[in-house]
Design brief:
The structure is a homotrimer. By secondary structure, the first copy, chain A, is of the alpha+beta class. Chain A has a single domain, classed as Jelly Rolls, CATH 2.60.120.460. Chain A has helices at about 20-30, 55-65, 80-90, and strands at about 1-5, 15, 35-40, 45-50, 95-100, 100-105, 110-115, 120-130. In chain A, the strands form two sheets. The first copy, chain A, has a five-stranded antiparallel beta sheet, with helices on one face. A three-stranded antiparallel beta sheet of chain A has the order 2-7-4, sandwiched between helices. In chain A, a hairpin with a 2-residue loop joins strand 5 and strand 6 (about 100-105). The two termini of chain A are about 20 Å apart. Chains in contact: A-B, A-C, B-C. The interface between B and C is large, with 37 and 34 residues.
Chain lengths: ~130, ~130, ~130
C-alpha cells in the first residue's frame, strides 16, 4: 500500500490527485489490474470528474451545498453533518483499471479528493492488485 | 481489459448492461475474484439497481432531475453541469464479486449505465482480477 | 466468497458491520490486497462513515429523507422508490485496502449497511483478492 497527503486549502474544494495516483501505479511496475484510491476520513470523499473547465468543480460544490445545507437542524455537535452526508453521496474510494502499466482514464477524467469540511491535510491510500497472467 | 459501447438513446436513460458484463466474465475463464465495470466519461455513471419494474428507472431519473435541476445558475458553459453532479452521486464504476465463474448479483439486481447528458454512444471498460488459489 | 446477514430493525437504519467484515479478512489469512463488501439488494446500500457519535447516523438518514421524499408522485407500485434512489446515491459496495492482514480504515471510519426500506434481513457478500508478491 502507498499513501500521500494533500492540503485542501478551503472549506469545500476538489483537488486533482490524478498525477499522484498515476505515479504510484508507474512505480509499482504492474502491467494490468486494478488500482483503488481510498480516503480514511469521513468528511471528504473521492471521485472522478471533469479535468478541463474549473467551473465544473465550482458548480458541483455549490450545488451540493444547496442539496445538503450546512445548517439544517442537525444533531451532531461538531457542526459538520453536511460534510458527512456529502461524503456518503460522493463515496470513499475510486477503483480504476490499469492496463499496459497505466491508469485507464477517459480524456476528460481526473481523480479528485473532495473536501467538504476543510481546510485540512487529508491522507489518500492507494492499493494496486495485478491480474493473474 | 475488455470494453464495449452502448447507444443511450435519450437525454436521461438507464441501460441494462448486465448481459454484456456477464459475457466478459464468462469469456475470461476466471473462477473467483472481482469484476470492475468503469465508464470513462464525466456525464454518465454506472450503478446497480432494480431489473424488474421499468417504473423504477423512470422514478430514479425523474427524482434526480428534481434534486439536481438542469438549470440552476451554473457557471460551466456547456450547460451540462447537472449531468456532472449526478455522475458524482451515481459513481464511475461498480465492482461485483465473481464466484464459480459467474457475476454474483441479487435476484432483482441489474447493472445500469446511467446517461445524464445524452443521447450519446458511451464506452464501458471491464477488468477482472482473480483470487489467488 | 464469504457472506453474512444482518437484521436491520427499522425502516431507515445504519448498522455497523465493520467487525464482521474484519473477521472475514482475518480468517482469509491474506496479507495485502483488496476487500469488497457488496449488498445483493436494491433498496439498501453500503458505505463508510463516522463510527463515534450516533447522531451522525441520525442526521444522515433524516437529511436523505428530506432530499429524497418517501412520497413524491413515484410510478413504482411497491412504494419504495425513495429507497431505490437513496441506494443509487449510497452505492452497492465498498472496497477497502487490506495491509498486514487487516482492513485499513481511518480512526473514525466504520462500514455501514444502510437500510432504506426495512425492517428486513439483509445479506452482505465479501470477497478478498490478494496482491501478487
Amino acid at each position: 500500500m502507498d499513501s500521500f497527503t494533500v492540503a485542501t486549502g478551503s472549506t469545500d474544494n476538489m483537488i486533482d490527485i490524478t498525477g499522484k495516483v498515476s505515479d504510484i501505479v508507474t512505480a509499482s511496475g504492474m502491467t494490468s489490474g486494478l488500482c483503488t484510491a481510498f480516503v480514511p476520513h469521513t468528511t471528504c470523499g473521492i471521485t472522478i470528474n471533469e479535468n478541463a473547465d474549473p467551473a465544473v468543480k465550482k458548480d458541483i460544490l455549490k450545488e451540493l451545498g444547496k442539496i445538503v445545507p450546512r445548517s439544517d437542524g442537525y444533531l451532531h455537535g461538531e457542526g459538520n453533518s453536511a460534510a458527512h452526508i456529502k461524503t456518503l453521496m460522493t463515496g470513499n474510494s475510486v477503483t480504476v483499471i490499469v492496463e499496459s502499466g497505466k491508469l485507464v482514464l477517459g480524456t476528460w477524467q481526473g481523480i479528485y479528493l473532495c473536501e467538504f469540511d476543510g481546510p485540512r491535510t487529508r491522507k489518500i491510500y492507494v492499493q494496486t492488485v495485478s491480474k493473474l497472467i
